[in-house]
């Protein structure tokens, strides 16, 4: 016996034994969707298809109860759409790369890239240090105060005896240009 959508939704909303019977009837009435799913989703086995269908039935029941199903389409159409989405979820879960178990993961994180970066940085720092020695005392002082200690131009002028901040800025610019040349940076 086939019941109308209005009858099924009314019975499901009633609750209790009537709801249970209506859900069971909906399940049996639309089970052909699973048989159709076998032809459409061949990668899924029978257990997956039935699980997807059971999940879809529960979703329809819940959506009828919470008012999300408004009857704009037939229950069977609504159920079929949810079932297809559940099947796609199963396919995605099966096709995604399996996650390696924690027991198989290495004990330590791969630090080789960090070590390489640190070596490159240390090598660059040493190169800059060597080139700074070639610049001379005033440039060394200005760049150390400015870049390493974070002094502003006025503080540097006071610390090393320049007339004003503008003089420090001019000298700093000249020192940086000379450092770039020594480093081979254009």
Explain the overall architecture.
- By secondary structure, the chain is mostly helical.
- It contains nine helices and no strands.
- The protein has helices at 5-14, 16-29, 32-40, 46-65, 75-95, 112-135, 137-148, 153-160, 165-183.
- The radius of gyration is 37 Å and the shape is rod-shaped.
- It starts with a helix and ends with a helix.
- Residues 99-106 have low confidence and may be disordered.
Compose a concise summary of this entry.
It contains nine helices and no strands. The protein has helices at 5-14, 16-29, 32-40, 46-65, 75-95, 112-135, 137-148, 153-160, 165-183.
Blueprint of the fold:
Blueprint (H helix, E strand, L loop, with lengths): L4 H10 L1 H14 L2 H9 L5 H20 L9 H21 L16 H24 L1 H12 L4 H8 L4 H19 L3
Key terms:
mainly alpha; Rna Polymerase Sigma Factor, Chain: A; Arc Repressor Mutant, subunit A; 2 domains; rod-shaped
């Amino acid at each position: 016996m086939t019941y109308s959508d209005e009858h099924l939704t009314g019975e499901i909303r009633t609750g209790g034994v009537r709801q249970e019977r209506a859900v069971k009837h909906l399940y049996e009435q639309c089970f052909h969707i699973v048989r159709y799913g076998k032809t459409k989703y061949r990668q899924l086995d029978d257990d997956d298809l039935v699980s997807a269908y059971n999940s879809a039935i529960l979703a329809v029941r819940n959506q009828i109860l919470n008012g999300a199903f408004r009857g704009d389409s037939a229950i069977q159409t609504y159920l079929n759409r949810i079932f297809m989405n559940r099947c796609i979820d199963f396919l995605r879960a099966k096709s995604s790369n399996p996650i390696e178990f924690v027991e198989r993961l290495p004990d330590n994180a791969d630090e080789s890239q960090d070590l390489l970066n640190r070596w490159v940085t240390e090598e660059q720092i040493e190169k800059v240090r060597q080139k700074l020695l070639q610049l001379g005392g005033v440039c060394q002082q200005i760049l150390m105060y400015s870049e390493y200690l974070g002094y502003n131009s006025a503080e540097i002028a006071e610390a090393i005896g320049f007339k004003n901040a503008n003089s420090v800025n001019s000298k700093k610019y000249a020192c940086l240009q000379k450092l770039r040349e020594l480093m081979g940076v254009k």
